[in-house]
Design brief:
The chain is mainly alpha-helical. The protein is built from six helices and four strands, in the order ααββααβααβ. Helix content is 60%, strand content 8%. The longest helix is centred in the N-terminal third of the chain and has 15 residues, at 6-20.
Length: 128
């Protein structure tokens, strides 16, 4: 499994803000580290808590969107990091115009869990 590094998350966020606008800045670097390093690869009693590529991608999205580690662009960054993780691991996120943005808002507003997010990601991805 190829994970996304803290540096990659920070770069993705910077690029998104530069391209689409908003405020640059990290509110909580420890939350970025947790989203990037700890959560997706977390083990419980010697077993991975999140086993599938879609569950791990969902953890990236949920943690960045829910924890708000950045001043702005958390939803964009969360979805982009999940998509990059999927790409690194052989999948491409595919959705119609507006679907990804609407789903990011749904994650935030309805506080979707990893299983719900993973199911959506799996249904909107194809292997490459």
């Amino acid at each position: 499994m190829r994970y996304i590094s803290e540096e990659e998350i920070l770069l993705i966020h910077h690029q998104l803000i530069k391209r689409y606008g908003g405020s640059h800045g990290t509110r909580d670097l420890e939350r970025v580290k947790s989203a990037a390093i700890i959560a997706p690869a977390q083990s419980v009693f010697g077993e991975e808590q999140y086993k599938t590529v879609f569950e791990k991608a969902a953890v990236y999205a949920r943690n960045i969107i829910a924890d708000h580690p950045f001043q702005d662009g958390n939803k964009r960054t969360g979805i982009a990091v999940a998509a990059m993780f999927l790409k690194k691991n052989g999948y491409k996120l595919k959705a119609k115009k507006g679907e990804i943005e609407n789903f990011a808002v749904k994650i935030a507003v309805k506080k979707l869990d990893v299983v719900q997010i993973a199911a959506w990601l799996q249904g909107h991805s194809r292997q490459v």
